[in-house]
Amino acid sequence: MLLKPFTKKENTMKNFSKKSRKEQKEIIELLKNFIRQNGSSYLQDNNISSIGIGYKIQRGKRTDELSLQFTVNEKVELDVLENIASKPIPDTLEVGGITIPTDVLERRYQLSYEIIEDISDNNRKTRVDPVFPGLSISHVSGTAGTAGCIVYDKENQTPYMLSNWHVLQGDNGTLYDNIVQPGPHDNNRVGLNRLGTLVRSHLGHAGDAAICTIENRGFTEEIYQLNTKVRRLSEPGLLDKVIKSGRTTGVTFGVVERIHVISRIYYGTNTGMQEIGCFEIGLDNNNIPANGEISMGGDSGSVWLIAQDNVATDIMAGLHFAGEAADNPHEHALACYPKGIFEKLGIVPSESEDIKQISSIGYNPNFLSNKVNVPILSDTTKAFLLEGCEVIDYTHFSLALHKERRFAIWVAWNIDGSQVKRISRSGVNFRYDKRIPNKYQIGNQLYRNNDLDRGHLAKRADLTWGTMEEAKNANKDSFFYTNIAPQMNNFNQSSRDGVWGNLENAIFAEVEIDHLKISLFGGPIFQEEDKIYRDIQIPQEFYKVILYEESGQLKSKAFLLTQNIVRLEILGLDEFKTYEISLNELEERGRFTFDSVLYDSQNNLQIEALQERRPITSLSQINW
Predict the structure, then answer these.
(1) pLDDT single digits (tens) 569-589
(2) How far, rounded to the nearest angstrom, does the alpha carbon of residue 355 sit from its chain's CA centroid?
């Protein structure tokens, strides 16, 4: 860990959300390791119910100051602590040389299993065939919880139903006991309602989870009232939006308020108190439940999915297992991280090879000796957020996606000229990124039956370097529609244009580049006057910024390509032109800001206005 201690002037963890993505990850990792190493010792205090990472709360409102948050059963004055066998929590803690503020919240948790009240949606508590997630389910001797999602055996692809340990096994159960759907509380004809048997379970730091077989019934994977299947797993971050479908409260929305939490929960006479790794979810103020309850008894085992624009994605954020105690005025829920429980139970989210997670190598800001971060958007509300982040990673490149225009705002990629592999594009098709709803991507409906090209923003050949596996993954990833834009006359292919398509090749030929490494930013320029074709605005300008180092000095060149489109209905196209452009002008046109380290990389280049300058017609005109 390369973090340096913060000075008092830096005021510890305030303005955490404004730190770079890498700094945020490093600090979170540092605190996560601290909790793993020390969390159990704090939980020996009977008044402390959990420890985790969250934004500090002051006067009932969330601040932008990151803290180590402790929850306690009771908040009492210091002179009363001794009477309840508890000790005070210090105002700050030293973690890896950094001063971290603490926060103390009054919360007490209980399992979301014991039934508090009946539900009005009878569809969830009846026996169904085929069975599907979101319904009532339980151990044959239990009450009722929620069927979370369909999962598959990692080795032989056998389908199972996922729920909690305390729903499918519980304090008195054992492996291979019968599981019923619905649970006995909802229908006591357990002999007729048998679904299968308990085959695997886990209760511990990795979570509270179990799976059962599905016998003599069909099944569908769509979660009730969310109309989506679990296809991918995530580790949610602070303030991510999530949504679940539970037996008792139905569809409820939430916001992740604490991460990397260790909670202390009572599991019954035989099992006693257990420490469970999890994260905490609070109310989404834009989607408050009618009864104000984010979870109630009977919701245990439901799956929290990442929500985008109030719609459930196919990304599982967590497995719900506990909520606030009934006498607590606050409303929060606890969920297990999916990765840990999937590993413990030997399961995967789908039987299909097509849903394997896309590589997250992404653009590397430290690829050159001078660190260069991705551009900062002037209006982040225009960007699609994947798991709460505008940066979407692929193999050797990353991008930000415009929600309304449905093309990339910027694409950032690295090229290692010493490791380039020749990979055939044969058999690789253009396709949607399944992590992103199709409505935010433009597919073949734009390119069908015309001469409009599906142009790579990050060129396929730029990305196929590294190990052979990396190169093959990058080759495939380059064909996602998120990296594609409508381009005329194949202008991004080096064989068709002597300037634009050959920029990367030319710099390797003309410049003594340090370590044969370059980084690039590129994408379309969005303008209100862009012409509309098939109800889609077609960008008329594209940009590319090439970053390289010569004798340790960072340099950059920025270029703009215009494609003057006329009579678009019949695709009558004018010649496209390439210009050199300053970074400042590009920032104005693109409505984003480059890393400040680039400001001196053009050596104060002065370029005349675009309408007055001449286009570049030969690579020899470029002064690298």
Answers:
(1) 444 444 567 888 889 889 988
(2) 15
CA distance readout (Å), 621 to 33, 114, 542, 595, 613: 54, 76, 20, 27, 13
DSSP 616: B
CA distance 61 to 44: 29
Q: How far apart are CA 356 and CA 492, in angstroms?
A: 30
- Nearest CA to 399 out of 432, 363, 434 is that of 363
Assigned token pair, 335: 């969920």
Tens of pLDDT, residue by residue over 87-114, are 889 999 999 888 999 999 988 888 877 6
Q: How far apart are CA 410 and CA 485, in angstroms?
A: 11
Q: To 10 degrees, the CA torsion angle through 106, 111, 116, 119?
A: 120
CB count within 10 Å of CB 104 equals 15
Whether residue 556 sits in one domain with residue 526:
yes
DSSP string, 280-340: EEEE-TTS--TTS-S--TT-TTPEEEEEETTEEEEEEEEEEEEEE-TT-SS-EEEEE-HHH
Question: What token pair was written down for 143?
Answer: 């009450």
Strands 232-233 and 311-324: parallel
Residue 513 belongs to what domain range? 376-621
Mean pLDDT confidence for 155-173: 93
pLDDT at 358: 46
361 sits in the region (left: phi over 0; alpha: psi -120 to 50; else beta) called alpha
Q: In terms of domains, do 41 and 118 share one?
A: no
CA atoms within 13 A on the CB side of 550: 13
Kindly state the average pLDDT of the residues 152-179: 93
| pLDDT the model gives residue 275 | 96
Residue 386 covered by a domain: yes
Mean per-residue pLDDT, 230-247: 93
- Tally the residues of the chain: 624
* Shared domain check, 550 and 402: yes
Dist. CA 158–CA 59, nearest whole Å: 51
* Residues 410, 521 contacting (CB under 8 angstroms): yes
Structure tokens at 258: 């604490």
Q: Is residue 345 part of a domain?
A: yes
- One domain for residues 162 and 243: yes
Q: Which amino acid is located at 179 in the chain?
A: I
Q: Please give the DSSP secondary-structure letter assigned to residue 457.
A: S
With contact defined as beta carbons under 8 Å apart, do 558 and 543 qualify? yes
Residue-wise pLDDT for 297-335, tens only, equals 999 999 999 998 899 999 999 999 998 876 665 689 999
Compute the C-alpha angle 615/484/596, nearest 5°.
65
Instruction: Tell me which residue has tokens 């990979």.
Output: 423
CATH number at residue 486: 3.40.570.10
Token digits of residue 412: 């950032």
| Torsion angle defined by CA atoms of residues 158, 160, 166 and 168, in that order, rounded to the nearest 10 degrees | -100
In a domain, 365, yes or no: no
